[in-house]
Amino acid sequence: MAVWASGVLLLVIVTVVAGDCPEGRYGYNCSYQCHCPHDYCNATSGCQPASCSRGWSGPTCQKENVALNKVTSSSSIYYLPSNAVNGDTSGDDETRCFHSAFEDSNITSAWWRVDLGNTTLIHDVIIYFRTNYKVRRNGIQIYIAGTAASPTDGVNCYNVTGNRDGTDIPDVLTATCSGEGRYLVLFTTTVNNDFGGVKVPIMDFCEVEVDSCTPGSLGADCDNYCYREGVCDYVTGVCPGRVCPPQWDVLVSVCDVSSYGTKCSKLCSDRHCKGDKSGCDPLTGQCTGGCRAGWDGADCTKKCGNSYGEGWDYMLSRSTSVMLADMVQTVSSSAQRDTAREISLPVTT
């Protein structure tokens, strides 16, 4: 499994111990729970096929809709805000969707909020819009918040933009909205109406999924794995403190022998290594035999500047460099230029 971490592609090799697990468990030390019928739960690889239980999705059923049946609130109510977290994704009947009020001409904004119950690492948000009326899709702002003090107190992680009539916005919109918080808020000040002379912002949508990877899983579909007990970063897969427990290895091994560094963007041949440089460390590009004279750094790509010798061993101060230049000029202009002179270079330590 390959993941990006701190700009470097890491290959996480997981040693899965197959064997007998309790019913509904699988993977290393039986650490993972199957979120599908037990008949489809393989003790090694999990759900086979992905017949996920209600509220779960992804190839291995490890992506959870943490908003399902949670407590909701809204700026006003025409149809219940709880309609948007009941699991009904059909969009052709507005009475089964959330709909804010619109009779009050003093309305300047509309919002909808779901309380996830506790601080949650949010992976993405999916909005199921009404399919029989599209004009209110444009202008929705999505926020992740730690408190319910104000609908816009959190981090604005996504904005829905498109034509005023909403025709270029899909019926099912997946928003990359990664962050950590207890509340997810949809907010708008946009007036998108084409009937009855209504001039206030209105919100209507049928379902909002807030997806989160289970502890120990990561990736776009939460179908890759990391160390379960030490709950890894759900985006990068990095373990706390970057320390792997026994039987788990992190290997930087994606770059081939000719490249290294962030996205393998640096060439080993551009280094100034002493000796053979046909290969190099795929993370740092370190020259195992040291650097040629005048170059320094782990990958020997940094010029030493006012220095000489191998590996920047001998540093010249700026004043020493100026003095040396003056001495050379004096020697060059002297009438005694045919006289051999030996200039000793002062060394600073």
Structure explained in plain terms:
A hairpin with a 5-residue loop joins strand 26 (307-308) and strand 27. The protein has 349 residues and is mostly beta strands. Mean pLDDT is 77; it is low at 1-18, 250-254, 307-325 and 330-349. The protein has one helix at residues 318-333; strands spanning 2-5, 8-14, 25-26, 32-33, 41-42, 46-47, 56-57, 63-65, 71-74, 98-99, 110-122, 124-128, 141-145, 155-159, 172-175, 179-188, 204-205, 207-213, 217-218, 224-225, 248-251, 259-260, 266-267, 295-296, 302-303, 307-308, 314-315. It starts with a strand and ends in a 16-residue tail after the last helix. Among the domains are: 2-62 and 216-251, no CATH class; 71-213, Galactose-binding domain-like (Jelly Rolls, Sandwich). The strands form 10 sheets. It has a 5-stranded antiparallel β-sheet, with no helix packed on it. It has a 5-stranded antiparallel β-sheet with strand order 9-11-16-13-14, with no helix packed on it.
Tell me the radius of gyration: 31 Å
Largest sheet: 5 strands, antiparallel
Name given to the CATH architecture of the domain at 71-213: Sandwich
Mean pLDDT: 77
**CATH homology-level superfamily of the domain at 71-213:** Galactose-binding domain-like
Q: Which geometry do the CA atoms define?
A: extended
CATH class of the domain at 71-213: Mainly Beta
> Could you name the ranges where pLDDT drops below 50 across 5 or more consecutive residues?
1-18, 250-254, 307-325, 330-349
> Span between N and C termini?
48 Å
Strand order of the largest sheet: 7-8-18-12-15
What is the chain-wise order of helices and strands?
EEEEEEEEEEEEEEEEEEEEEEEEEEEH
Content-based structural category: mainly beta
| CATH fold category name of the domain at 71-213 | Jelly Rolls
The amount of helix comes to under 10%
Number-wise, the strands total: 27
Beta-strand portion reads 25-35%
How many individual helices?
A: 1
